[in-house]
Amino acid sequence: MTTPKPDLQPQPVDQPTKQRTWKARGRILSMPISVLAIWAALYIAASAIPALPVPGMGGMITLNAIMTAISGMILGPAAALANAAGGIVGMLLYPYGFSAGPLGFLTVTLGGLVAGLLFADRWLLAAILEVLVIGAWFVNPAARQTGMWLVPLPYSAIALIVILVKPIRVWIRKSILTLHKVYMWPAVFLMVCVGHSVEYLTTNDMVNWMYKLTWQYWVPTLPYWIGVDTVIILVSTAVGVGVLVGLRKARLPQFADTLEK
Amino acid sequence: MSDNEIIRCQDLHFSYPNGLEALKNINLTISRGEYVAFVGQNGSGKTTLVKHFNGLLKPTQGSVQVFGEETRGKKVSALARKVGYVFQNPDDMLFCSSVEEEVAYGPTMLGFEAAEVKEKVESILQELGLVAHKETHPFALSLGDRQRLAVACVLSLDPEVFAFDEPTTGQDYFGGESIMELVDQLHDKGKTILIITHDMPLVAEHAHRVVVINQGQIALDGTPKDVFSQTEYLRTLSLRSPQVTLLAQNLGLKDRTVLNIEEMVAWLEKEYLPAPKKVTGGIA
Amino acid sequence: MMNIDFASLSSPLQKLDGRTKLIALLGIFILALLFSQPYYVLGLLVLVLVIWWIGRLPWNLIKTILQFLLVIAIIILVVQIFFYPGKTNLVHISAPIKFIGFSGYITLEGLMFGIAMVLRLVVIMIVAPLMVMTTPLPEFMVALVKLKVPYRFAFIMTTALSLLPSIQNHAAIIQQAQLCRGITNFENKNLVTKLRAMAGLLVPLILGTFRDSQTLDVAMSSRAFGAPVKRTFLLESRLSAVDYIILVTTVLLLVAGIYLRIRGYGAL
Fold first, then answer.
1. Cis peptide bond prior to A152, omega within 30° of 0
2. For B80, which of C170, C174, C180 is closest by C-beta distance?
3. C246 and C127, same domain (yes or no)
4. Which of A180, A236, C87, C150 has the fewest CB atoms within 10 Å around its CB?
5. Does A243 sit within 8 Å of C207, measured CB to CB?
6. Do C205 and A42 touch (CB under 8 A)?
7. Is the pLDDT of residue B162 over 90?
8. Complex confidence, ipTM
9. Under CATH, what is the fold of the domain B1-82+161-222?
10. A182 near B CB under 8 A
11. 3-state class of B272 per DSSP?
């Protein structure tokens, strides 16, 4: 009979154990892998359902836009992984929602990541990523053209302000963690702005960079895009509040459980 | 169609889009105030049939008339006011953030005034014993209470017919009893009750009429006493009469059917014990 | 759209390892982004179509993809034709309209650039189905893991995929249940109302799925998920000679492409 491998042997109780516990192995960034898999599955299902037409992007905006927008609040930074997993498989199964080519899943990954980091109070990282995403827009020489600077507005600007201004950050987290009856709504709204604007701007970054569209396309279509974004953000706010409250009341797992109130 | 016949199926055939023929040649009439149980194996078509009564499914051939009108061409949300359907899993029906909101949702959507809605909600919550939970989030309730809430939501639309999909499956004895008490109360008020179930004792205890579905067709249609007396035939359909019925039959009772424990005890005391006969066969 | 019946498609591409296809896909993607001269991109497109033909993939799928891309392709073309800062004037349209940046001419460079961008779009959009249609998802997962994607991430994907049918089923039931409560939103043609209906479906769906899957965590733990052992896969995937040839070719093409670009070719 072979002796068990060293790292399977039980550790003496008084020795601080360096290896992760079994329980911790089942988690990434504090969220159980099973929960991330469930989210990814929901994400894929949502990718199948078209919601709004997108003129000129050759596809539809599907319900996974809502999922991306709320993922950060529900799953924390691990939302990036769940969205990525769901995004990759969703892209393979239901391509009509993804227009940025094979790397399109990165848009939703970042959306979940920035919002999640913000919710986990790693605001500096979130800020750095947000600045990178906005910066990527302006780095593109096409962006110096007339009016292109308008495109990240208003939601990316709101997102940046939310991330950088401490009192707002703190207030948002508190309102969501305590499920405040009134303040929760604007708090969730702002978080959703962050999540969605990152996804939206990253998509635009990629599309602009790949196909070199010019301001003559971006600026006139801006009113439509802002309209679309607003609708998505409003709807996502409603869904986000419903899910956050429901998860808490039913004592189901969510990232907020791992935070101190 | 007489005024009392509220649901009528004529030569109903239904096939799923993938070609699977689920219902064949169904001819069935249900009258006002009836208490009907639909039983059958898994996949026999009982749920498929009942889903035709509120328009969730439309016949591929033949006709289904509800309160005198064809279901084809009618929207489910419109028929929901006449035929209520309570799903097996109450969570599938709930989506508001408080019990009060849930029950108020239906009437509000139908356009009732706020004061009327409030009144309605109050009375329904009273009836179903949910007043204490008025402000509670539906997901914080126990399963039994969530079921009651689902019934309350359907009740708020004030339909005449109530269809229940497996109301006791997955529940313990007391949970099942509790929900059936509720169903009986609704029936006493004059509602027409349709129950889809596997639970034979439930059927024996509560239903006035049993429709046995087998492979998409009606195999038996009669009172529980009639249906459960045909033990051999039911066995070929992979269905079993309640244990009590089988026990009585095996103890030699041929001319009647025992449906529940009270009848069993009465029969044992009056007829069997004075002159016991030899037991034939087992209960299985 | 991508739910393909692999059994009916007998394509030589199926014999290739998943890793090869992924790397080739990436290679073609990079090449498409490198070049902006229409002839080069056209060459790439021809290559992709040849691979499509070798792969015996259905041609009507290309048609579907093209239809799908039609509007954005036209937009790209129009934007580039009219607004690309080109030098060689082709067709005089009107007097320069300064405020929208229109020089008054359609330029040759604009036309070429527009065509190049459209071709690039087509190449990128066709390359993905090439990979997807010839690789069953389990093989795809194994390929990812062999390419050093962490196993736990691939696990999330496979588990998600297995949970998908029951979620879709559940969604249909919730929709029916809401109809039975008199909610008319699904039957409405109005887009915004439909969206509200979808949102109303999402909350119970998400909550219900979380609730139903609570035992998943326990199931995973009780089957030793995360144990510190080396994993053996059920699906063995090895690189064959053909795989190596293709991999080498891809790398060579990439190197050649980068070299050409550095030397100034391939871009307008």
1. no
2. C180
3. yes
4. C87
5. yes
6. yes
7. yes
8. 0.82
9. Rossmann fold (3.40.50)
10. no
11. helix
Place of tokens 């602009």: A208
Give yes or no: residues C84 and C175 share one domain.
Answer: no
Of C163, C153, C151, C262, which Cα lies nearest the Cα of C219? C163
Tell me how crowded residue C193 is: count the other CB atoms within 10 A of its CB: 14
What whole-number distance in Å separates Cα of residue A162 and Cα of residue A155? 10
Examine residue C142 and state whether it is found in any structural domain, yes or no.
Answer: no
Chain A partners of C206 at a C-beta cutoff of 8 Å?
Answer: 42, 239, 243, 246
Within this chain, do residues C197 and C125 fall inside the same structural domain, yes or no? no
Contact C207 A253 (CB under 8 A): no
Q: Closest by alpha carbon to A109, among A144, A73, A72, A147?
A: A72
Q: What is the pLDDT of residue A17?
A: 44
Helix axes A166-177, A155-164, angle to 10 degrees: 90
Distance from C-alpha of A34 to C-alpha of A85, rounded to nearest angstrom: 13
Please state the rounded mean pLDDT for residues B245-264: 84
Sequence-ordered list of residues with C-beta below 8 angstroms from that of C240, at least 6 positions apart, any chain: C15, C16, C17
Q: Which two tokens stand for residue A236?
A: 């996502």
Count other C-beta atoms under 10 Å from residue B67's C-beta.
16
CB contact under 8 A, C184 and B77: yes
Domain ranges in chain B? Answer: 1-82+161-222, 93-158
Q: Are residues C126 and C93 both part of a single domain? A: yes
Q: CB-based contact (8 Å) between A239 and chain B?
A: no
Residues of chain A with pLDDT under 50: 1, 15-23, 261
Taking the CA atoms of C257, C259, C262 and C268 in sequence, report the sign of the dihedral they define. negative
For position B85, what pLDDT does the model report?
A: 93
Domain extents for chain A? 31-252
What the block records as the tokens of C24 is 């080739």
Domain identity same for C54 and C96: yes
More confident residue, A246 or C232: A246
Q: Are residues C122 and C186 in the same domain?
A: no
Per-residue pLDDT tens over the stretch B7-21: 999 999 999 888 888
Q: How many domains does chain C have?
A: 2
CA distance C96 to chain B (A): 57
Does C126 lie in the same domain as C18? yes
Residue A198's nearest CA partner among A232, A225, A160 is A160
φ/ψ (deg, to 5) at A59:
-170, -160
CB contact under 8 A, A102 and C209: no
CA distance A249 to A256: 13
A chain contacts of residue B140, beta-carbon cutoff 8 Å: 249-250
- Segment C33-38 shows an average pLDDT of 85
State how beta strands C105-107 and B83-86 pair.
unpaired
Can you give the residue range of the structural domain that contains C182?
149-222
Same domain? For C116 and C202 the reply is no
